[in-house]
Specification:
Elements lengths: L1 E5 L6 E5 L13 H6 L3 E6 L19 H12 L4 E6 L1 H12 L4 E7 L24 H15 L8 H12 L13 H5 L7 E6 L12 H5 L5 E7 L6 H4 L1 H16 L2
Parallel strand pairs: 2-3, 2-4, 4-5, 5-6, 6-7
Antiparallel strand pairs: 1-3
Helix pairs in contact: 2-3, 4-5
């Protein structure tokens, strides 16, 4: 696994897990705020994504927690950490919180699937793998970013396109079977640490069914709260980093007062 870290060695650790077809750079607009807050930030390319090798076995989210925990043992020893999981990374984070409960001090889920909540209409994405690099490929990927990841057209900027295009080429974990189940909802009752959620109010995965989010998250015995970021889509931490960073800071501060 390839890991990236920022901040002082004596800062409280926080681990950020990226989404599917992603890498560490899903968090590119959020790392600096955490460093300013005094945190030691750890962000991997999850197994099978970015520059990391595939997991030893399996091709879906349930194959990822074990190698992530093994890496954290090397990096942090037995120290507990705050864990933030975006989308696919939210499933991984939830499973990790059950498999290694002493590792996870707080869990923050961001736009996570597998809660057993389905939008009224499927999301239509345009095929792209047959296209050569150039204007046509860029146009299709901008369209897909707008359909799935970002709520506003102006959010599909050159940086978002560059991040998305680079990450897609390095995705070797094509299975998304678990994201279409309720595995995370069924896992939440087993999580002993505090659990918060941060969602974009215009998240395409939950368009028209956002009212079902909080009841699902309340399956966690220590549910702490749900933040909804107005005008932001699925990739909420990129589309509105100021509002997201504020919500994350509130979640982490609220939990530290327990």
């Amino acid at each position: 696994m390839v890991w990236h870290s920022w901040g002082s060695d004596d800062g409280a650790p926080i681990v950020l897990l990226h989404g599917g077809s992603g890498s560490w750079n899903h968090w590119a607009r959020n790392i600096a705020a955490l460093v300013r807050a005094g945190r030691r930030v750890w962000v991997p390319d999850l197994p099978g994504f970015g520059d990391s090798a595939r997991p030893p076995a399996g091709g879906d989210a349930d194959a990822v927690p074990a190698p992530v925990e093994a890496a954290l043992q090397t990096l942090l020893g037995d120290a507990a950490t705050d864990l933030v999981g975006f989308s696919f990374g939210g499933m991984v984070a939830g499973l990790l919180a059950v498999q290694a409960p002493a590792r996870v001090r707080r869990l923050v889920l961001v736009g996570a699937p597998a809660l057993g909540i389905k939008p009224p209409r499927p999301i239509a994405l345009r095929p792209w793998s047959h296209l050569e690099p150039g204007a046509d490929l860029d146009a299709v990927q901008r369209s897909n970013l707008r359909a799935l990841m970002l709520a506003k057209s102006e959010s599909v900027d050159d940086l978002a396109l560059a991040i998305h295009a680079r990450n897609l080429r390095r995705d070797r974990m094509k299975l998304r079977r678990l994201s279409r189940t309720d595995i995370l909802r069924r896992t939440l009752p087993q999580i002993g640490c505090p659990v918060h959620g941060i969602w974009g109010a215009e998240d395409a995965l939950y368009r028209g069914v956002q009212e079902h989010l909080e009841p699902a998250l309340r399956q966690a015995p220590r549910f702490g709260g749900l933040w909804s970021i107005a005008g932001a889509g699925h990739w909420v931490q990129y589309e509105d980093p100021v509002a997201f960073d504020h919500a994350l800071a509130q979640a982490l501060q609220a939990q530290s007062n327990e």
